[in-house]
Amino acid sequence: MKLDGIRVIDLSLFLPGPLATQMMADHGARVIKIENPAAPEPGRSTDYFPWAQGGHTVMYRSTHRGKESVTLNLKDAAAKALFLKLVGEADVLVESFRPGVMARLGLDPATLRGSNPRLVYCSLSAFGQSGPWRDVAAHDTATVAAAGVLSLSRSPEGGGPALLGVAIADILAAQLLFGGIVMALYRRATTGQGDYLDVSMFEAALAAQPNIVGPVFGAGRAPDPNAERTHGGNAMFNIYATRDGGSIALGGGEKKFVANLFGGLGRPEFIAPVSGPAGPAHAPAIRFLREAFGAKTRTEWEAWLKGRDIPAMPVFDLAEAWSQPHVRERAMRVTDAAGNDHIGIPIKYADEPGRVNPKLASVGQHTDAVLSELGCDAAHIARLHARGAI
Questions:
Q1: Domain holding 142: CATH number?
Q2: pLDDT the model gives residue 159
Q3: How far apart are CA 290 and CA 238, in angstroms?
Q4: What does pTM read for this prediction?
């Protein structure tokens, strides 16, 4: 696989960091998760994530497959010395502590890269390692609020901001981190030097806005949902309720799609205005579509739309979405031999494809084996266990 031979030390917690390192494991990297013996990975806990399958939380299963688990108390001198030895042989280190924590532990980038210049050291945080918000506590919701994204999560008809259904800043940050690591490893092949990556969830959410930041950069104002293409001001980028309580989402405004929809509905007079800029000219068409979609069931509209080359899909609930034949055929829902479900691998390589490894480590399962690889004998390992260092 693409990342065979790469060794990753994973100190990250919850979602974005573990997801990025799981992506690396899916493509062949050896990922060694370092857990605090007194407070292991929160994704394991049913207090945070109550849904479980096969003896593990679905969250843990979806972010930690194929990894090894080693417990080290990094405040213990002996455990810290072993961690430094482990990092000395690593290619990548990922940490997601609040800024300053690694420095207080004496594990800052300068120290670790000084002893291993080939190391790609990655810090993942809410707002980054510098700036006025550096030390602000936050998870996904707070970062997307600060990035202006939550202000857009409302109906064009009004209402306050709504929670997003996906931890989008977490996911985007994980994907940026994955790409950044791979670029650093590629460059290292030429220079022999690793690098330091500072990735933040907040900036991941900001970077996701090239198609919506127009009125901010162009006019110095926030978007008006009723005048913006993807915020509700375009008839072809909207959600329409059906008679049975379902919904159909339209998602493409090219003229050919406009003609296919309104021509098929017998209302060609809407083709010209809806082919133009979003805003008041679309309002009559939006009113017509709300009435038209409300007159039939979702199933009836699915049948009507089939084969008409109109970018439209039903608004599936999550269970419906994950049950679609397309999801199975594309191997995005994978069931292992024990009957447990896994999110599949979205990067489809023709050569050396990734592989879902369903194995999940118990807390510290690989501690003794990894320490043995570092040269520790059984007696030394036993003493470390006895003192709570591992």
A1: 3.40.50.10540
A2: 79
A3: 10
A4: 0.94
